[in-house]
Structure formats: structure tokens, C-alpha cells
Design brief:
- The complex is a heterotrimer of chains A (395), B (459) and C (178).
- Chain A has helices at 2-34, 36-67, 70-83, 86-98, 100-103, 105-108, 111-114, 121-124, 134-139, 143-170, 175-200, 213-239, 249-280, 283-292, 297-316, 319-322, 325-351, 361-384; strands spanning 244-245, 389-390.
- The radius of gyration of chain A is 22 Å and the shape is globular.
- Chain A is 79% helix and 1% strand.
- The relative contact order of chain A is 0.17.
- Chain B has 459 residues and is mainly alpha-helical.
- Chain B starts with a helix and ends with a helix.
- Chain C has helices at residues 16-28, 45-48, 56-82, 95-122, 158-167, and strands spanning 6-13, 34-37, 145-150, 172-177.
- Chain C has two domains: 3-52 and 128-177, no CATH class; 56-121, no CATH class.
- By secondary structure, chain C is α+β, with helices and mostly antiparallel strands.
- Chain C has five helices and four strands, in the order βαβαααβαβ.
- The chains are: A mainly alpha (395), B mainly alpha (459), C alpha+beta (178).
- The interface between A and C is small, with 8 and 6 residues.
Chain lengths: 395, 459, 178
Amino acid sequence: MSAEAVRETIARWQRGGLLVAAVGVGLCALAATVRLDTLLESYLLGFLFWWMVSIGCLGVLLVYYLSGGRWGLAARPFLECGAMTMPLAALAFVPIALQMDRIYPWAAESEHTVASADASPAEMTSDAGHHIPPDVQRLYLNVEFAQARAVGYFVLWVLLVLAFCLRARRGPRRPRGRRRLAAVALALMILTCTFASIDWGMSLDPGWFSTIYGALIAMGGALAGLAITTAAAASLQSRTPSGTQLVVPPTLADLGTLTMAFLMLWAYFAFSQFLIIYAGNLPEENVWYITRLQGGWQWFGLAAIVGGFVVPFGLLLSRDLKHNPRWLAGVALLVFGMQFVYLAWTILPSFRPGEILVRWTDVVAPLALGGLWTALFASLLARRVPEPQPTTEDS
Amino acid sequence: MAQSGKNLKHGSTRQQPLVGDYTFGSVTDKISAIVLRGRTPRNWYFGFAVAFLLVMVLLWSVGYLFLRGVGIWGINMPVAWGFAIVNFVWWIGIGHAGTLISAILLLLRQQWRTSINRFAEAMTLFAVACAGLFPLLHLGRPEYFYYLVPYPATTGMWPQFRSPLMWDFFAVATYATVSLFFWYVGLIPDLATLRDRAKRRFSRIAYGFLAMGWRGSARHWQRYQRAYLLLAGLATPLVVSVHTIVSLDFAVSIIPGWHTTVFPPYFVAGAIYSGFAMVLTIAIPLRAVYGLQDLVTARHLDNMAKVMLASGLVVAYGYLIEAFIAWYSGNLFERYMMLNRAFGEYGWCYWLLIASNIVVPQLLWFRSVRHSVPLLFVIALVINVGMWLERFIIVVVSLSRDFLPSSWGLYVPTFWDWATFIGTIGLFAALLFVFIRLLPMISIFEMRELLEESKGEHS
Amino acid sequence: MADAQLYGLLAEFRDPEALVDGARRVREAGYRRFDAFSPMPIEGLAEAIGFTRTRMPLVVLIGGLIGAVAGYLLQYWVSVIAYPLNVGGRPLNSWPYFIPVTFETTVLVAALFGVLGMLALNGLPRPHHPLFAVEQFAHATRDGFFLCIETADARFAGDETRRLLVEAGATEVFDVPA
């Protein structure tokens, strides 16, 4: 039976995820006893990435509820399962919340020590060290408030997941009411996602600021979420026996086109930030890119541009490729993986400026979290994935 | 579009892209008659006369500008960019909705675009024409505008490609060209319809010339549709790029309030916002005067209101994040810029802007507001004003406070600033009047297509 | 009227479905040099007359590539070779600055190729065509659905072709003078 082939594939994802997670968690435990600080850096990278994927799935789902469209009917179960991993992200945040002073410079330095870097604007602008504006630290960047904000974000996101992934499925709500609710939810989500990315990512370099940062992270999350959805849908489709189908080919191509559109938007955001900072060349801003464009980190950036944009964009231009599930899944996975590379390029140099330094935990910790994410995703998907239908002529 | 299909079956007329019983023939006749047969309404003459008067004001103020130079405007150091740049950005922003409606909605297979895309595209062209005037007038020596073109000059000089103003030249030129193509390609089959329906010899020859011998061959249609889709695929990122480059005119500098990374998407959203507001401002009177309520339906207005609300929220996000990061950065100049915007000499403009761009449009959350045509018209007008104020604040307020307090200054627009601005509104309106008199303001062949599709869905 | 003076036979059909059906029948009968005419694009009509793949995407892609390469090279040549200027210490070939214009030229040339390519492949502008001589054909841009078999077709045989058209569902058949 065709349904079994699909179920078997999903079960394999679940087993694979659990295996990777088990090995990864074991290795991380080992690393924690050796160098906790390094592990926390890698762990933050992993957390941020998988959180972005979850929130991205939720965001794309809300966009579907707003706009409708053929693509969304097929993508919906995958997006829902991706978004429903949100509690995992909340749990994964706990170690970070408890160890903020080991990760974030603003949490490590007490207000007293930074207060010396007061008043004059020349001193406020950051060069090598972190100069945190004292009032910002007092009112915003402090451990208690950051923890409270994080609780607030996660409560909201989990509520949104409950409302749109569980309730919306059960109760036949009027579409118009749901649309309005989705609009409000999307607005709230983008806002909280922006502040979360400032709290968890941008503040790694206090004193550095970029107004597009939150939108860029949200866009990257949406791209990663859509890419994993496309990859999962396409690879399940490629495993259904001939004569049956899970996702009709034009819908699959729609998902490919949408991935390409998101890819273009993401590249546009990322390039805008770079071009404006490059052109302005102000010391308080350009230090962020200078750190990331020397000492070997530049190769990371180049890989993210070529592998994360140029190659997949060129491939997705082809109509034939978008109609081939196997190829489409491959390209979507490439986009997904390169989002991780890009994120690593934005996060890791904050900890290790000057020279490229990739620790083994940088791979293992995100993989461990990814294994857990995949296992949860697959177990949720097993219950939601639709039955493959016999191929009809006019589809 | 399984969804819209389902909506159609559940059958409130509100959901349908067009209302009433039409056949291929009657829908063709209805739209083409506006151009070919109908008596030109008295309102048309009246409107055109007013617009034409304003065009004369434009010629007068431009003539005086050429005679006396840019000193007749209120600009001076430090505010060297005044109304000319404000108006340029405003007009080019308005010019974004047309191509966007056409291109993105075509790619998204949104059928409701069909009734509004033609005149929205025309609006784009005319708005870009108005926008294009201002940088040229602002040059001071407009006769040297060709210095922007890279050509082997005897002076041996070449343009500076590291300047965003050069990018702007390429962006606006490309945008004008591609929008014209897009509009014209969309018109070809309708021009053929007019050619075959025209009674007078002159009309037949003129429309026939423009239709280029279109005869509706299936092979032609096939290539035509592919080409049109590809053009839409090109036009969509182009629209985004044009206003991005306009935003870079500001963001690439280091002036507080200009140099901020969120500018590109925030400007694009603002452009969509003001563009849709302008489409509504035009569509509402048009459908009333020409009795097009069953082609431009309440559903169209409702959808446009929703797009306005969404893009308005993105703009609000831009304001919010700008203010927050100004504080978060701890940078003295950034923080001062923000405070000065809200509480400085031009503070009242800022609060007016917040009221008209953020507060008032929240009414659009309510369905009853979206379905009240007069209210919608007023909100669209308010947004037009608000978006103009936004550009005024960005351009003028940031410039009026230089880094050194000794170089601070204010900008007060003069009579000639206003006359030129109002003159371009006249030019825009006059071009629009000529367009609705001479060309079909709704795409006829796409209406026929829509009819065929909805017939299929009903059966 | 002798065949030599004819361009072909023009048949009118009642509605889009009849036209698609008729076109399919004519093609199955072995005709190749014929074309269908309709006031709007009809899904499946191009397939029915045996015209499936257009070269438009390729034309546009080539245009885009030419535009991209030419746009970047222009800026490179101007900024590095013809008129090198130091702007704020940036390298002469400061590529981030050249992306916006490169993008614009890409879109511009691709769109030019798209529009001109479409017109060229369609053989337009073509002010006169034998079909325009048939008075009824004016309806092809309003509510008429037509199919024309050219005399140049190898299988064209006067009355037999006419009979085929009627059997295929034509409501009326007109002679198209050459």
C-alpha cells in the first residue's frame, strides 16, 4: 500500500532523529564537563537555528491563513507540525536563560563596570570592547528583564500554536474570523520575533545595531521553515509508488516557486543590511562586518552567498526541476542547510573575533537539537500527513 | 485556486470578481463603448479643464524656475533637498502600486486584479513621469541632465557608479521602460478590439497601427501569455528594487534618520501603501462616474483596503523599530534625531503623520469601514497626505539639524514649491483624463477570460 | 473560385469548447498548417493545434544574462579603467556598489528581449493579413472563435476540407482570398 511507504519514511526520520539526538546529547554532556563556555556558544547557535525554523513555520502558516492558495493546502500539515515544535524551543531556551551571564557580554558586566564608559558619544560607540549604553542596560539589557521577555515571547508563541495548529483544526471556525485572527497573530509574531532576535542575537555585540536585523532573522526563519516543508513534502512525494500522489505536481512546483520568492526576499534583506553599512562605513556599525570578513570568516560568508543564494536561485529558475520531487527536495535541503551556515556566520564571530575558529561542538550541539526537532516533527507528522491519493488525470 | 472556487460556489455576490450577466460580446461592448461610442460625460470636460489649468501652473512655475534658478524654492544649506525630493519620492511611491497590482497579483493568480490592473498601470506611468520631472528640475542646470548617461564624452568624464544617484537614474529609467512595456503588451489585444470595433476611419487606423496586426492567433496567445508572465516575474523584483534604490539615496549617506538598514523594505512597503491609496482615490470616483460598479466591485475595494492595512502595518513597524533602535544604540545623534522628529520644530508634522498613517488606517480592520465607499475614499486621501508627510519628515527634518549646532537651519516652502507640486498633480490628473478617454480603462480580453473561467466554475 | 487564389478556409465556431474540439479534430485529420483565433487565450487550444513549447523563457534568460554581464562590465570599465577615482578609500572595483545597477540592467535587457522576442516570434507588427479581408473575422477580437486552414497545407483539398470543418463543428465556413 502506498500509505505504508510514506509512513515508513516518516518513521525512519523519527528513528534517525532520535539516534542523532542521543549521540549528540551524549557528546554535549561530555563537552559540558570540559569547556562549558564553548558548549554554550554552540548551543546558542543550535537553539537560534531551530527556533527560527519553528517560528518560521508558524509565520508561513499564518501567511497561508491570510492569503489562501493552492500551495498552502499541501504545505499546511508540514507547517503545522513544524510550528508545533515550539514547546521544544521553549525548553531548549531554559539553559540559555539560566546561563545568560556566560553568553552575553551585557549580562556578564555589571552595571557598575560599564558606567565608566559614560556620557561622551565617542566613548559610547563601540570599537573593540563592548560599551553598553548604561540606560539601555539598566532598562532593557539586563538578565531579569531579558528572562521575563523570553517567557512572554514563548507564552505568546505557544498560544498561537495552540490557536492555529490545534484549535483551528478541530472547530469549524468562520474563515473570515480566522483570517482576522491570523492577521493580528502575524503582526504580534513579527513584533515579538524582532525583539527576541535583538535580545538573543544582536545583543551579542552590544553597541552594534541594525534596524533590519529582526526582519532579517524572521525572514531567514520563514525561508528555513518553508524550505524544510518543501523538502519534506517533495521527498515524501518521491517515495509514493507510481500511480499515487501525496502532493500534486503543480502544487509542488508552487512550493518551489514560493521558496524561490522567499529566497530572493531573504537575500534582499541581507544584502541591504550589508550595502548600507558598507557604504556608511561608520565605526560603530562596520565593526560587525569587519569581524566577519577577515581571519577566515569571509569564506563562511562567501559559502552562504554562493551556496545559500546563487546556486539554489539558479536551479529554482528551472521549471523542470520544480516538477521533479527528488531534485526539488535536494535544492530545498541546500537552502535549509545554508541558512544554518549563514546564521553561524552571523553568530560565531561574535564569540571568536579575529580568527576563524569552529569547534566540534558547533556542529554537534545544533545536530543534537536538530535530531530532537526532527524526531518530534516526524512523530507529529505521522498523525497529520494525508493519505496518498490515486493520480487523477487532470491534476 | 481551490479556495476562491469554493467561495464562488457558496455564492455571495460579494466574492465574485464581476457581478451581473455578461457575455463575451456585452462585456466587450460595455468597456469599449466608453472610448468609442459613449458621449464624453460633462464631468470629464470639467475635470480635464481643472487639470489642464494646473498643468499651466506647472509650466508657469517651471518656466520661472528656468529663468531664475532653484533659488526661487525654499531650499538652502543645510536643507538642500526640499520639496523636489519629497515630491519625487512621493510620486515614485505612488507609481509602485500599478505594476505591483498587475505583476504580483498575476503571479499569485488573484483574479480580482483584472478590473483594476489597466488603469493602475497607467497611473504608474503617469506618476513616474511626474516623479521623473523633479530630479531634473532639481539639478539646477537641467540642460546637463545627460551627464548621467554613461557615454564617451569629449570631456573624458564618466559617471560615478558608487553614487546612489546614478543607481536612481538607472532604476527610474528601467522602471519607466519596463512599466511601459508591461502596459503596452497588456493593451495589444484590446487595441485590436478597438480597431475592429471603431467606426471612424481615423480611429481604425490609429488603433490598428498600435495593435500591430494582432489577430488573436492561438500561437500568438501562447507566446503572449508566456511573455506576459515572464514580464510579471521581472517586474515584481523590479518594483521592489526601484524603491529600494530610492531609499538607498538616503540610507547610503551617514545622516541620522537616513542611514538606517531597515530603509529598503520599509520604503517599499510605504510605496505600496501610498500606491494603493492612490489607486483607491482614482477608482472610487471612476466607477461612480462611468457606472462600473459591477466590474470594479465592492470586493475589489475590500481587497485593496486590506493590502493598504497590511502595508500600513509594515510602515508602522518601520517607525517603531527606528525609534527603538535609536534609543537602543545609545548613539547621541541617533537619539537626538528621534527626539527632534517628535518634539522639534517640525514635531507637529510627525504627529500628523502618525495620525494619518498609523492611527486612522486602523479603521480598516472593520469590515463595515472597508465596505463604506465614502469612508474608504476619505481614508485613502488621508493616507496620501500621510505618506507625503513621511517623506517631508525624512528629507527635511534630518537635514535641518546638521552635526554641528552652528549649521542648523530650517526649511520653509515658498509659493513656487507649492505651485510646482500642485502643478504635477494637475499633470497626473490630465494624463489620466486623456487615458480614460482614449484607451480602455479595464482590460477587455482579461474580462472575457474571467467570464470564461467563471462559466466553467459555475457549471 | 480556384484554390490558387485562396489563402485558406476560415471556419467559425460557437464557443471556446467547440473551437478546442474542432482544432483537435482538424489536427487528427492530419492538417498542420492551420491556426485558431480567439478573443482571449483559451486553455488547451495551443495543445490542440499542436503548439506546446514556446522559446520565450530561453529568450528572456539570454537577455537577462546579457544585461547582467554588460551592466557589471560597464561599471567595472568606467570605475577601474576609464575613470578611476578614490571614493572614501573603497577599492576601485567595489562590487557591492555595482549590484543595484547590474540588477537594473539585467531586468531591462531581459524585458526588452521578452517583449521584442515575443513580437518577433509572432511575426508582428504585421499591418495586413489575408484574414482581415473576411468581414466576419472582426469578431475574433470580440466574441468570435475561428479556425483557419491554409491552402499551403499539403492535405488541403477544397471541398473535402470544407466538409471536415463543418463536421468538426463549424457554424459557418468562409473563403479567405489570398
